[in-house]
Write a sequence for this structure.
C-alpha cells in the first residue's frame, strides 16, 4: 500500500471515520475509480504507474477520479486538468483532497499548524483556491467541505511522501497527536 493511502486510512476524525473513506464517500460503490496520489495511482484497486498529465486511458473512460493530496504538488496543473477532462466521461465526478490551509478550530490554531501548513507548497493556490482552479478548468464545483483528522505522530518522511506535509515544513513543530485538517472538493465534468 502506498504512503498516502496508509496515512489517510490511519488519520481519524472525532467519530472514528478515516480520511480515505471520507474522501471517497461522494463516489458510491461499484464504479471504476482512478485514484491519483503524489507517488502512486490505482484504477479500481489495482496499482498503476501513471503521469497525471499523460494518463494511459481512452477518452471518456472514467466515471470518477480522486486526487489524493496531489493537486498542490503537481508539476503542471493545467496539463493534469486537461488530461482529466479527456478521460472523464460527461457528468463524471472528480474529488480533490488537499490539506486545508485554513484552521477550522481553536485547537488547530493553537497547535501552530496554520503557520507550518502555509509554507513550502509548490502550488499554493491548490490549497487556498482549489475550488477556483477547478472552476477555471471547466469543472462544476458541487461541494467544498473541511474536516479535521488526527494522526499519532508518524515518521516525518512518511508525511512528506504522502503529500501531507509541505517541503520545508517542520512536523516536529507540533506536539502530541498531529492534527490533519483536510479539504474535500467535489466537482463534475
Amino acid at each position: 500500500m502506498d504512503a498516502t493511502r496508509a496515512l489517510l486510512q490511519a488519520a481519524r476524525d472525532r467519530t472514528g471515520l478515516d480520511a480515505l473513506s471520507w474522501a471517497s464517500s461522494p463516489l458510491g460503490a461499484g464504479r471504476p475509480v482512478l485514484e491519483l496520489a503524489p507517488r502512486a495511482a490505482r484504477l479500481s484497486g489495482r496499482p498503476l504507474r501513471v503521469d497525471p498529465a499523460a494518463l494511459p486511458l481512452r477518452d471518456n473512460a472514467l466515471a470518477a477520479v480522486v486526487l489524493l493530496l496531489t493537486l498542490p504538488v503537481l508539476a503542471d496543473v493545467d496539463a493534469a486538468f486537461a488530461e482529466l477532462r479527456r478521460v472523464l466521461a460527461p457528468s463524471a465526478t472528480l474529488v480533490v483532497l488537499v490539506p486545508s490551509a485554513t484552521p477550522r478550530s481553536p485547537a488547530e490554531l493553537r497547535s501552530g499548524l496554520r503557520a507550518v501548513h502555509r509554507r513550502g507548497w509548490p502550488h499554493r493556490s491548490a490549497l487556498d483556491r482549489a475550488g477556483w482552479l477547478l472552476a477555471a478548468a471547466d469543472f462544476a464545483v458541487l461541494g467544498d467541505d473541511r474536516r479535521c483528522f488526527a494522526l499519532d505522530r508518524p515518521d516525518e518522511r512518511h508525511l512528506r511522501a504522502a503529500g501531507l506535509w509541505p517541503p520545508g515544513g517542520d512536523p516536529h513543530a507540533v506536539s502530541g497527536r498531529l492534527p490533519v485538517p483536510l479539504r474535500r472538493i467535489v466537482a463534475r465534468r
